[in-house]
Predict the 3D structure of the following.
Amino acid sequence: MAEARERAGLTVRQLGERTRIRETVIERFEQDDFSVGDFYARGHIRTIASDLGLDPDEVLRQYEQENADGASPVRASAVFRGDVGERARRAPGWTKAAAVALAIVVVVVVARMLGGSGEKAGPTAAQLPVTAPHAHERQAKGHDRKSLEEAFGPGRVVVKVTTRKPAYVDVKDAKGKEIFRGTLPEGKTTAYSAKDKVRMFIGDAGAVRLEVNGRDLGTPGRDGQMIRRTFEAGGPSPR
């Protein structure tokens, strides 16, 4: 997970803000310290893996293999060690406060496990509609078609991404301005447009198919491979 985070260009703090997981917990995970307990470890591992475009089930299988004999029960003190000082632990009534906080953490973790990780998009230069939801909505279809035609104008690049499984992508324009950053869900098709160039980082190259200015480039790499690609106006071939 540490290697995937670094290749995605994220700090521990940025990953913590994206996943709402404590920085101290992420740092311990990257050092193979799962003393927060097996229940919390599984939930956090799934969330982090999904956000980084990794296969959560595969990462959890590796966790189980390496910690088959070391799974520890939930320890509230390990979860809150980064925020609760010695003075607070000795103060009257701290046990009740810790119990309330622990209940809140349980609710948050369960909600994230059930809901999955969300997407975070930066300022969008052009995030285009791809298909209309129903055949009878002719007016909506006509609008989508017009938007794509306008995007294919001189000096523009249109990249369409179709996912066969969840994948983390980071899309920027020629000046480095962020168009989109987040995890695309399975089966989603999204188009991005920018002037002159589109720069992309893909967390799992085997999870997506790319189409650039109307030309199908297929799958850009192997399953689990992290890649960077730049597409320029006037030619769909990656550089």
